[in-house]
Each structure stands twice: as C-alpha cells, then as structure tokens.
From TrEMBL, chains A, B:
Any Pfam family hit: Trans_reg_C
Database matches in SMART domains: REC, Trans_reg_C
Species annotation: Pseudohoeflea suaedae
Gene Ontology CC entries for this record: cytosol; protein-DNA complex
Protein name listed in UniProt: Response regulator transcription factor
Sites bearing 4-aspartylphosphate, chain numbering: 51
Domain of life: Bacteria
Record feature DNA-binding region, as residue ranges: 124-219
Coiled-coil residue spans: none
Residues of the Response regulatory domain: 2-116
GO molecular function: phosphorelay response regulator activity; transcription cis-regulatory region binding
Keyword check for Magnesium: no
Keywords (A to Z) from UniProt: DNA-binding, Phosphoprotein, Transcription, Transcription regulation, Two-component regulatory system
DNA sequence: GAAACGTCTTCAGGTGGCTGTCAGCTTGGT
DNA sequence: ACCAAGCTGACAGCCACCTGAAGACGTTTC
C-alpha cells in the first residue's frame, strides 16, 4: 500500500514511518498542511494517517476538503489528547478510525489492517523474500528499507505464477502459458531472461532453478 | 507435503493430524482463525484442510483472503453438517474440494490424493527408505526432517527402476536399458557410478548389492 | 513531429551442473 | 593370497541455463 503520513512531530513521525515501512508499505511523510495537500493532489494513496494538530492549520480541514472532493481514501486520525470532541468531529468529517496519542505501534498496525480489510486493499504481502515484500495484484515490490521497486508487466506475470503456489516447482512451459494467452507463441528463452531480471531486483537467491524441471521461489530465504 | 490443518475440535483434529502425518506429510495444526492466518503468513503450504466453523470467525474468510491474495494453494473444506449452502459458498470462494463431517479418514486420504494429483504433486510416497520418502514421477526425495533433496534426471531414472519393483533384484542390464532408450550404448560402469551417487544421498544401506546379479532396495531400513 | 524513454523479444557468448569415462581402491568368495 | 566384482574420486565434454546487448515497437515529453 501507499500511505501518506501527516505529522509535524519529528520523533513520532519518524517512529511511525519506520514502523509502517516495516510492514511493507510505501510511506510519504508530510510535515505540514500544505505539504499534505500537495501530496494528496499529486498521488493516489491507499491510506492517510492524519494528525489533527498541525502548525499551519487544522488537519481536520485536510480531511474535509478530501471528502468534499468525494475522495474516499481511508483516513485514520491521530488525536493529540483523548479529546472526545476531536474524535467526534473527525469521525463526522469522514474519518474511518482514530488513534489516541501516545500512539501504540501495535495498535496502529491492527487498525491499519482493519481499515484496509474493509476497503479490500492488501496490507499483508503474499510473500517476503530477502526482506522484500511482494504484493498480490500489484506491479510493485517493497524492499526492507521501504524503497519501492517497480516491475514491468511481464516481470510481474512471471513472479505471479511463481508466488501463486509457493512450494511448487513451476515449469517454463507453465510460465509461458500464463504470459501468452494462447496462440502467441514465443520461440526463445524469454522466460529465462525474465527470471534473470527478477533475480536482479529480488536478489539472486530469491528464485531457485531446478535443472530440467523449472523454477521455484526459495522458501528458506530470510 | 506440508499441510495446514485448521480445526478447533480437539478429537477430530488429533485424529486427522495423526492420519495425515502417517501418510508422510508434515502437519501444522491451527485451532483458531488467528492461528491459521498467522501460519499462512509465515509458512508456505502445499495444502490446507479447512473447517468452516471456528470459534473466532468463519473459516470461509480465511479462504477468501487467501484467494484475494492470489494464493492458489489447494484447499479442502470440512463442513460441520451437510449444509449445501456452506459447500456452495466454499467452492465459489475457491476451494478445491470438500468433505462432510463426520470425516471418514479413508475418504480424506482419497481426496487429498485427488486434489494433489490435479496439481501435479504426489502425496503417496512410493517408498520410504531410512525415513526418506521417495515419490513417483518426481525428481525429488524428502528426508525425515522435511529437508528436500533434489535428484538429477539420471539419478532419478536409476532409483525409479529399483523402486518400481521393490522386493525384486534388478540387474545392471535392466537399469541400463531404462537409461538409454535403445541404441545409445554405454560401455562403462555407469550404473555403478549412479548407484554410488544415490547411496551418497539416500544413505549407504538404502541400496543393497547382490553380487553377480544386480541391486535391490533395502526393505528393512527403518 | 522529433527525441527520449521504457518494454519486449531475440541472439550470442559465458558459466556451471550433469554425465560418462577411467583408474585405482575395496570387498567378497575360494 | 588371489581373483573377480564392485566402489568411488577425478576429470573432460556437453548442454541447460544465465545475462549483457541490441533492435523493434509503443508511449511520453517537449
């Protein structure tokens, strides 16, 4: 997932960003209201973590303007104190959930998971190889440090076949079948080339070759 | 194979686990939905046996979230009663087969076999030597601790001949015949070499030499 | 429209695992 | 002790696989 974190506190922001990164999500961190609105305009996010107390205006206004634009991106509010009025205002303005500071990272994780599930987006990677998270139905993988790596459509198609049945050995023929939906034959080592490219992005050990049989995801890669 | 059993009933779970374990598979047993999801996240399985009625949520959700993640691990459902609606919902959600409780262990075995066969993996080892399972038509053997040992195609061919008729003594000539489909003569001790290589992987006692006659699989190896 | 860019496919040279061969050694029978 | 049969480490050749490069094609940018 792609997450926008709106938080002016350096310490807290850093902790949250790191933690959410570790869950395998791409995190942009906006430290002011202007920052946040610029980001929201430029990028489509799957989730927004929103602090209501910002130096240059209320976080609530960000949420309101989002919903005014009929943007239904899930928003989780982080309120500075357990102020009932804040929470009510936030939820009324269209927030999906809220957290009370000091933020417990485990709780944050659980709430992100719950909200995302409600929206049908994926928060759990289908697979983690070498600390690199692979997500289903997304042409992107996330490295351990949070950096995003984009996959081309063919690269992703190959990886998808391998990940769908993790413990199985998949033959080149099976992979080709998935790549070229009937008819469109290919007469060279295309699959080998894409495996090679995937290895460059995922790490050499990520995909195991079984000579004369096919390929398989390495299950033991830590 | 590595199997995840999701079942909250102690009695039934124990019986099923024991039975499946006897077939030579590694079985993890999850007794709750949370347990099951944690296991699925951490480990790649070849098969999931899924009870739909769990204390902390529906087993169907587990299946749905698996398929949402484009995970195609085979799933066999166990429904509490012969509820048509359950079965239909399960199959629609992407289950591969279903069992009706009370579970008949023989039927369970047959269905596991059928589902696995559809996916090209074998569930019944042709033979167990030294706690190492040998599967038909696969160039792979599995040690007692679950570690996999890959065989080269020639190694496999030799082992296959020996396993095909377990108690019989197979001559070198017969084995050579299987290795080199007519014409392609071999004029050295190739068979001896491959027996040696196999012994290195299977254990010294796995293959017995009958001087002047041929080889045979040791049946007494525990 | 032209240039810059990214993707897909093909090809060619390189690499490493698999294979068959042999030589020297071990084992079993007499 | 001797011989025949079998065992196994070493090695050269082969073939499956790997990978860098380049051309064809489509897309974006100016």
């Amino acid at each position: 997932m792609r997450v926008l974190l709106v938080e002016d506190d350096e310490m807290l922001g850093d902790a949250v960003k790191t933690h959410v990164h570790r869950q395998g999500h791409a995190v942009d961190w906006a430290q002011s209201r202007d920052d946040a609105e610029a980001s929201l305009e430029a990028v489509a996010y799957d989730l927004v973590l929103l602090d209501l107390r910002l130096p240059d205006g209320s976080g609530l206004d960000i949420l309101k303007s989002l919903r005014d634009r009929r943007d239904e991106t899930p928003v989780i509010i982080m309120t500075a104190h357990d102020q009932v009025s804040d929470r009510i205002a936030g939820l009324n303005a269209g927030a999906d959930d809220y957290l009370v500071k000091p933020v417990d990272l485990g709780e944050l994780q659980a709430r992100i998971h719950a909200v995302s599930r409600r929206y049908g987006t994926h928060t759990l990677p289908a697979l983690v190889i070498n600390g690199i998270s692979v997500y289903p139905s997304e042409r992107r993988i996330v490295a351990g440090d949070g950096a995003e790596i984009l996959l081309s459509s063919r690269e992703w198609a190959v990886l998808d076949r391998l990940v769908a049945r993790k413990r199985a050995i998949i033959s080149k023929a099976q992979i080709e079948e998935a790549l070229y939906a009937f008819g469109a034959e290919v007469e060279s080592n295309t699959v080998e080339v894409y495996v090679s490219r995937l290895r460059r992005k995922l790490g050499k050990e990520a995909i195991e070759t079984v000579r004369g049989v096919g390929y398989r995801i390495s299950t033991d890669a830590a």
